[in-house]
Amino acid sequence: MRASGLGRLWGCVLLAPFFRGQARLQAADAAPHPAPKFAVHGRVIGPDGQPMPKVWVERDGVGMAQGRGWGWEQEGWPGRVLTDANGEFIFGRDARFTEIQTRINAPGFAPHMEWLSVTNIVQTIKLDPGAAVRGRVLQDGEPLAGVRIGISGKDRSSEIFAGHFETAAGADGTFEFAHLPASTSWSLYGIIPSFTNHAALAIKTVQTGADGTTNELGGLNAKPALHLAGKIKTRHGGPLPSGMTVQLGYDDAWDSQSAGVGKNGEFRFDGLFAGSLSVWVQVNHWRLAAANRSRDIWNVSALAGLLERDKDDLTIEIESGDVDYSSPGYSSGNGQLPPQDLPRGRPLEGVEVSGLPAIILDGQVVDDETGKLLARFEVTPGYQPPRAPTLPKTVIQQLLKPFATKTVPWNELPFWNYRGKTAVTNGLFSLEYVALSSKPIFRVEADGYEPYQSEPVAATTRNLLVRLKHGTGPNGAVLLPNGEPASGATVIYAAGHDTFKFDTDGIGPNGPEDKTGRIFQRTGARGDFSFQPRTDGRTIFVSHPAGWAEEDVRQGGDHLELRLKPWASITGTLIRNNGAPAPGEVVAVTMSMNGWSRGEPCFYFQQTFTTDAQGRFFFSNMPPRDLFIERRVPSGVHSWSDIEQTSFTASAGVTNDLRKVTLDSPPPPPLGEEIKRKLGL
């Protein structure tokens, strides 16, 4: 054999593991491939327990110490592998991971997905035949032949989404989905383009039974179709951009439609059925205006709402500019609208005049001392969700009221529409609200003034007068432990229910960066900082390579001198109830979230440590304050559960040895806290 043929032969050698009795050839000058440091070894078998060779196994989600994710840490290994003659496969790489989510689609079997852990044990995946769903599509009692039916897993979360599938109805209108995952909830629907414009098959929730069973749906009646028509307009009445299309999709169906836009902005969708849907406009460098009443809270590029009957006047207002998915203001700790007030729970609307009457709040903002209109301020609209009635307190609760801490339930916190914040330069404001069960509120902020927050307003109110009082926020200097100025320190002015992150670089935003300087600042050469007042401003947090500082500023924060305390280190040994070490457990340092429920700001720690063979853990660069050790267990979708292990107060500048910490056996809370909890304080 010629030397030049070795390269071609080497390309074929990779198939050798799939055939018994064949030798593996290797170029004489090639070094053996080292085994990956971290690997998952699996084996695929059929219902009879026999191995399944030549089956593709896809890698989807990846588990890391900090939890599960999709689309991250994908380098260094293939996206799918083929099982060998013994049904076995390996996913491995040198970069650390803890588990992977596998997906298998084999003909004649139900699609299968399963999380596999990094271990030396060969983990077995058993494929099952799955269950079937069968039905018949009718219109006025007659079969609809050739129409396409879709079925999609009802839970769309990446961790457990069962997939989506399509099939066509036969001459007698009968259709069947075979080999679906068993015991799963599905959305079944008609694929809109395959039906005529006069009929539609609405979404129906169905359930697959056990493996080998068939769910007989019987006749499914296509009903008269709905249509959605309207027009697109620009915010200031200018010409429409060219090349626009309008897209429409249903929340529970894996199906979307596209409609062209006429020269006057008109568009139309036919063949629709009643349900919750989304509508979005596709055109470069244009976005939905805030005036669209059904603009989605979470996806600001789409309208979301209910289509319950034919609609001919949907008017979508667009404005020039790219979509900004971050919040212009800081939304940490923001409340949430109740389900009935979310756009998806209301009829689909744009800016058309046929919609429900709006609530208008307008007025003027003046200087409290001079009575003159303010030259510049910002106004943020919001809603106050319904509040539960106050229950009568017991005699003991009334006696202890001065010592109780007021706790506002999460579902009663104000919801602020930070994307609707506007800058005003003429002293006059006007806000438009959709009438909801939640009541309109608004906030006014101006440099050099205390912020103003309105009470809930139930109806249109004109000529409001807002008087702003002069005020200053916390200011002063950050000092190093030796008393010298600390330049470049991160300073956070936190309000009630704010949340921040804490990682190897110290503290930072738990979301979009604040560009106004009202929440985040860096100290200057003299360690100086100065904030404007904030509504419910509470605490100053400081992070610097030299250490940490924090200060409660509810009673004032003028001319502060914040001296940094050196970072703390934390060590300990996690043991089981029998005294044996607990290796391989992911632990984290955190602060109590109980304070957050009472309105205090808090921060989430991003660092974790996997206990070694002796159960030991170690953390450095930790803030000297009250902290907790928690065990982190992946659970749910994109999340994990935290189990408290112990609480402690970290001393500055030293290694805090917690000694032996018993697994999942936290010490009882202080007696005073336990008494307050039992009394409902």
TL;DR of this structure?
The protein has 681 residues and is mainly beta.
Ordered list of secondary-structure elements with their pairings:
Layout: H1 6-13, E1 38-45, E2 56-64, E3 67-69, E4 80-82, E5 88-93, E6 99-104, E7 112-117, E8 123-126, E9 131-139, E10 142-143, E11 148-153, E12 164-168, E13 174-180, E14 185-190, E15 199-200, E16 204-207, E17 214-221, E18 223-224, E19 226-234, E20 245-250, E21 256-260, E22 266-272, E23 275-282, E24 286-288, E25 303-307, E26 311-320, E27 359-367, E28 377-384, H2 395-399, E29 415-416, E30 422-424, E31 428-433, E32 439-445, E33 452-453, E34 461-468, E35 475-479, E36 490-495, E37 499-503, E38 506-509, E39 520-522, E40 528-530, E41 537-544, E42 547-552, E43 560-563, E44 568-575, E45 586-590, H3 594-597, E46 602-605, E47 608-610, E48 616-622, E49 626-634, E50 640-649, E51 655-662, H4 671-678
Parallel strand pairs: 1-8, 9-17, 19-26, 27-34, 35-43, 37-46, 44-51
Antiparallel strand pairs: 1-5, 2-3, 2-4, 2-6, 6-7, 9-10, 9-13, 11-12, 11-14, 14-16, 15-18, 19-22, 20-21, 20-23, 23-25, 24-26, 27-31, 28-29, 28-30, 28-32, 32-33, 35-40, 36-39, 36-41, 37-38, 41-42, 44-48, 45-47, 45-49, 49-50
Main attributes of the structure:
681 residues; mainly beta; 5-stranded antiparallel β-sheet; 4% helix; 43% strand; disordered N terminus
Characterise this structure.
With 681 residues, the protein is mainly β. It is built from 4 helices and 51 strands. Strands 2, 3, 4, 6 and 7 form a 5-stranded antiparallel beta sheet that branches. Strands 28, 29, 30, 32 and 33 form a 5-stranded antiparallel beta sheet that branches. A hairpin with a 6-residue loop joins strand 32 (439-445) and strand 33 (452-453). The longest helix is centred in the first third of the chain and has 8 residues, at 6-13. It is flat and about 85 Å long. The N and C termini lie far apart (86 Å). 29% of the residues are buried. The model is unreliable at 1-30 (pLDDT under 50).
